[in-house]
Design brief:
Number of helices: 25
Pfam family, one: PEP-utilisers_N
Strand content: 15-25%
Distance between the termini: 43 Å
Keywords: Cytoplasm, Kinase, Magnesium, Metal-binding, Phosphotransferase system, Sugar transport, Transferase, Transport
Shape: globular
Radius of gyration: 30 Å
Structural class: alpha/beta
Protein name: phosphoenolpyruvate--protein phosphotransferase
Largest sheet: 8 strands, mixed
Family: Belongs to the PEP-utilizing enzyme family.
Subcellular location: Cytoplasm
Length: about 750
């Protein structure tokens, strides 16, 4: 059954449109399950009805005409309960309803499963049989699996506009991911095609068919030459049988085999890379389905050849165009900062990526630039999105493809309101961050990029609460040397002097890899990251500590922060290395005072070791993002569980309140430098809990300052007391929204549904 399932899925994925995919699926399922009928009912959210979209076994004239409300009949019951229904004698069921147009009176057995995509009902898949038959567990498991596969196909069809039946007017589709940078935008998609990825080549209509054909032939000839040269180099080192494979490759590349078929697709209206990808995918899918082992193995050869030819085609084709739409939404499998830099800033309206996370380098840059960004959008059908109009919601991690006029109008209004608010708040950014009852709440900024060293920030903040030293490491091709690092750190320290600058030692691992120092782990967030890496590589940490100390000469505003601390021993080891660096530099004639040192509180274990840590360090800094994900056991960058990651979870708020209380008892200053600090409601809670300072990305400063200037410290303390008594994240968020509404500050929060 698994082999049958694999083949059906391959055929469905290879279909050019939704109708073809549905027709393939119902026919293959009926055959595989040895049943009389297989049908698919599509759910229309506007009419809240299930429409018969495809069938084999029922009357074909019923397609598109028979519909049921949710809860009506057996199909409606499956949709209502969102669970399978398996009946041996369907007409005997009290919910059974007969539709004359379908001709289903002949059938007794019924098995229906819901089609659900990201908790959203899309339809119902049904099989029926004339004789009374109880479908067994294997049948049910097979149909459930097919239903899960169809959910993805349907979502893609919605996004690409290939679902044009009246049941779903407009073809609007919603995809969700991880909200990485706030803001909203309406624009046109420009797809960044990864090099040599046959599954991510966008569809484009060629402007010059003959030129595309010439490009194709030149690319094929270059690959033929590469293979011929490789065969000659290896002729004396491999057997005649292995050498024969090079001849097979040459035959596959011959005019009759590959070139003519791709050329035909180009003449049908597809550019060369897209035509090549279409043909290669079709050949691979065919070869993977055949029973002959030798031919199945050739599928990998065809795929490899396709990638080689595609690589040569892409040498002449820029990954992204030279001319960009006025409002460009850059979409790709994985967008690099280098690619980001190719788009004129005034035309870049938003970013969307299949891969990536809220703490990836591109997310950090996007937040610094104030560009709405959603990452980890795993279900996005990249090849069919080029040129599509979209609405991007960076607050809630949403992408609407081919939005309705009503949705566009709503978001145009929200975007206008947000722009007006930014303009209003700009007028008070040079005013102190002080509550109406005189409490000063120091606001600091998170930096790590050249863009963050703006002098205009200096008079608006109390210092840099977090300088991410890993960012310069990420954009280099090797570990930067001591002098190179010292220059970077000096620029940062001088730009903000005499304000304090808290520099975090190299924090790689998790989702922050260095290209020249990859860390491949099954569970990177619980693996080798932060101080665990640098203590294992003292040569890297020593160079960094020496560079920081060199850079701080004569400025006296350096503070050092140790990330991902789990054990007190780690702090002791790091402090010994710092003392050694000071001693070594002194021997070289460079005298530097010992800077203040702090630890990041982001591993839950540190909550129970504060007393021991307080004996060793000068301050604490809470990494609320990591602390939240570790407390809740939720990977915040996984879109499948992103909704469970919530800094307003009562357990997180209780932990934060305890940290503030214990730090006060230990007389150690404590700062919060996660996303929670940059949220106006979160900032008010943290102020009420007693945190000494808040550090955030620069674009978050205006809203947080506005909230603090309008809410007294006593009111914030009352808010904390009320909130800690609540039991669910939803209740917390509703209460915060209500309170800020009473204080006429709801406009500072992200828009709600």
């Amino acid at each position: 059954m698994l082999e049958v399932l694999r083949r059906v899925i391959q055929e469905v994925n290879g279909a050019r449109n939704l109708d073809a995919a549905l027709a393939t699926m119902v026919r293959r399922i009926r055959k595989a399950m040895h049943t009389d009928v297989c049908s698919f009912y599509l759910y229309d959210g506007e009419t809240q009805e299930l429409v018969l979209m495809e069938t084999i076994g029922l009357h074909s004239q019923a397609v598109g005409h028979v519909s049921l409300r949710v809860g009506e009949g057996l199909v409606g019951l499956v949709a209502e309960r969102e669970e399978p229904l398996n009946l041996e004698d369907a007409p005997a069921h009290p919910r059974f309803r007969y539709f004359e147009a379908t001709g289903e009176e002949r059938y007794s057995s019924f098995l229906g499963v819901p089609i659900i995509h990201q908790r959203r009902m899309l339809g119902v898949l049904v099989v029926q049989q004339a004789e009374k038959r109880r479908y067994d567990e294997e049948d049910e498991a097979f149909l459930i699996t097919m239903g899960a596969q169809l959910a993805g196909v349907l979502a893609h069809a919605l996004a690409t506009g290939s679902l044009s039946r009246p049941a779903l007017p407009g073809g609007q589709a919603l995809f969700t991911g991880v909200a990485a940078s706030p803001g909203m935008a309406i624009g046109e998609v420009v797809v960044v095609a990864p090099l040599s990825d046959l599954n991510s080549v966008p569809d484009l209509i060629p402007t010059d068919v003959e030129y595309e054909i010439v490009r194709l032939k030149e690319a094929i000839e270059r690959v033929r030459e590469e293979i011929r040269a490789a065969g000659e180099r290896l002729a004396s080192r491999i057997s005649a049988q292995e050498l024969a494979l090079f001849e097979v490759y040459q035959q596959m590349l011959s005019e009759a085999a590959l070139s003519q078929e791709v050329e035909k697709r180009i003449r049908e209206g597809q550019w060369a890379p897209g035509a090549l990808a279409d043909v290669v995918r079709r050949h691979v899918q065919y070869l993977e389905r055949v029973d002959d082992d030798y031919l199945r193995e050739r599928a990998a050869d065809v795929r490899d050849l396709g990638r080689r030819v595609l690589a040569h085609l892409q040498e002449e084709t820029p990954q992204i165009p030279h001319v960009f739409p006025e409002s460009t939404i850059l979409v790709g499998d994985e967008i690099s900062v280098a690619t980001l830099g190719e788009v004129p800033r005034e035309r870049l309206a938003g970013l969307v990526s299949v891969r990536g996370s809220s703490t990836s380098h591109v997310a950090i840059v996007a937040r610094a630039m104030g560009v709405p960004t959603v990452l980890g959008m795993v279900d996005l059908p990249l090849p069919r999105l080029s040129g599509a109009e979209v609405v991007l919601d960076g607050h809630r991690g949403r992408l609407f493809v081919r939005p309705s006029d009503e949705l566009k109008t709503r978001y145009q209004s929200l975007i206008a309101e947000e722009a007006a608010l930014v303009e209003v708040l700009e007028h008070e950014q040079d005013l102190p961050s002080e509550t109406p009852d005189g409490h000063v709440m120091p606001l600091m900024v998170n930096t790590g990029l050249a863009i963050d060293t703006s002098v205009s920030l200096k008079k608006r903040i109390s210092g840099v609460g977090l300088y991410r030293t890993e960012v310069p490491f990420m954009i280099a091709e090797r570990f930067p040397g001591e002098q190179e690092q010292a220059r970077l750190y000096r620029d940062q320290l001088e730009s903000f002097a005499p304000l304090p600058v808290v520099m975090r030692t190299l924090d790689i691992g998790g989702d922050k890899d260095l290209p020249y120092f990859p860390i491949d782990e099954a569970n990177p967030f619980l693996g080798w990251r932060g101080i665990r890496v640098t203590l294992d590589h003292p040569e890297v940490l020593m160079v960094q500590l020496r560079a920081m100390l060199r850079a701080s000469q004569g400025l006296d505003n350096l503070q050092i922060l140790l990330p991902m601390v789990t054990n007190v021993d780690e702090v002791d080891d790091a402090l010994r290395m710092l003392d050694r660096a000071i001693r070594e530099l002194g021997e070289e004639g460079i005298v530097t005072p010992r800077p203040r040192v702090g630890v990041m509180l982001e591993v839950p274990a540190t909550l129970y070791q504060l007393d021991a840590l307080a004996e060793r360090v000068d301050f604490f800094s809470v990494g609320s993002n990591d602390l939240t994900q570790y407390l809740l056991a939720v990977d915040r960058n996984n879109p499948r569980v992103a909704s469970l990651y919530d800094a307003c979870h009562p357990a997180v708020l209780c932990a934060m309140a305890r940290l503030a209380e214990d730090s006060k008892r230990l007389k150690k200053p404590i700062c919060v430098c996660g996303e929670m600090a940059g949220d106006p409601a979160g900032a008010l809670l943290l102020m009420g809990m007693g945190f000494d300072s808040l550090s955030m990305n620069a674009p978050s400063l205006p809203r947080v300052r506005a909230a603090i200037r309008r809410v007294s410290l006593d009111a914030a303390k009352t808010l904390v007391h009320e909130t800690l008594a609540l039991n669910t994240p939803g209740a917390v968020r509703s209460h915060l929204f209500a309170r800020l509404g009473e204080w006429q500050l709801a406009h500072l929060l992200p828009p709600r549904d």
